[in-house]
């Protein structure tokens, strides 16, 4: 009998949620056949069978949160195609016995994602006491917050109270759980004076009109990835004071360099895109301005030695940001190859939790159908994100033979969003100027 255990899904991932079983008890499976799908806060993963045989027990139902090395299922590797699967036998009624210690596995944990369990710990909520309202009875963030912020039942008065004085204006009391960062919830609980708006409800005297379905409307439930993205973006905007600065970049020199080498790169299986040049310039600018490659701590900040460059990729399941590890140690060719690799695997749903972990700075590319420019939301816990705009031919003033002339060059606007808690305007402008300078000069070694 072979025990199939929850694998290590990433260096920072300690548990996963069983989202879908692809086999049933009694099924014969081949070695490396996909058994189930497992989700973490970072990526979705398929767990293959370590052996051929028959699935005799599924130990973790869909929705269960299973720790690393926890039991998922058992496979009888001696079973063959002609063998009958074992039939479950109902045990005969037994006489009541006194309880005794056993080595039986503990009861299934309450259904909830790793992020929900983390929130419950921060809020001091016992998940076993929470009624889940999500799919398959899963406990959601809102379920946890509803319990955390529930008002205690009023105690019965010992004696009739005297007539009450006219009520004083009260602070805003949320009608629904606060969908915000745990730090903000703690501020509210501690009477910190800040009460965030409540999505779908309002703030203070302002109330959001309720949604009334109309013919032709389509209500689309959040996918798991969309829910995580929404929570991340709301947390980032609340946590980091965003400032955006924009640079205009003349790409004439970089365009000529790309045209000289892109066909050779293509024959070697490496697409030489503008994104590769921008990432290479970003990495060099980060090394020269290291405080953009940092993260904020409680009362300090850490300047990070490793440069792991996140590259936003649009996939059928939504936007994800895999990272190119140690990007400052790669040549332009190496960066171009890594961009192609992570993008291809992301779109094929083959990305891993480690691919998504450890990003220190992000570059966002809106694609061919981009726009002039836009300020992206910082990917936490980074302190900056660089967003590309569309590349268009525009009239520019250039100097030739000592005279200014008008020429038509490919131009792009780039917008840097930065965290003003630790990044000042001088540093941000210095970093963005350097990225633009490298691209305008075309200063890249093309191997």
Could you describe the 3D structure shown?
With 447 residues, this protein is an alpha+beta fold. It is 25% helix and 24% strand. The strands form six sheets. A six-stranded mixed sheet has the order 11-20-19-18-14-17. A four-stranded antiparallel sheet has the order 1-8-6-3, with no helix packed on it. The protein has a four-stranded antiparallel sheet with strand order 5-4-2-7, with no helix packed on it. α6 (274-288) crosses α9 (425-441). The longest helix is centred in the C-terminal third of the chain and has 17 residues, at 425-441. Residues 89-108, 159-185 and 187-192 have low confidence and may be disordered.
Could you give a short description of this structure?
This protein has about 450 residues and is an alpha+beta fold.
Reading side by side through the largest sheet, how are the strands ordered?
Answer: 11-20-19-18-14-17
Task: State the end-to-end distance.
Answer: 53 Å
Helix content: 10-25%
Q: Tell me what portion of residues adopts beta-strand conformation.
A: 15-25%
Radius of gyration: 28 Å
Number of strands: 20
Query: Main beta sheet, described?
Result: 6 strands, mixed
User: How much is the average pLDDT?
Assistant: 82
Number of helices: 9
SSE sequence, one letter per element: EEEEEEEEHHHEEHEHHEEEEEEHHEEEH
> In terms of per-residue confidence, which ranges show pLDDT below 50 for 5 or more consecutive residues?
89-108, 159-185, 187-192
Shape: globular
Return the structural class.
alpha+beta
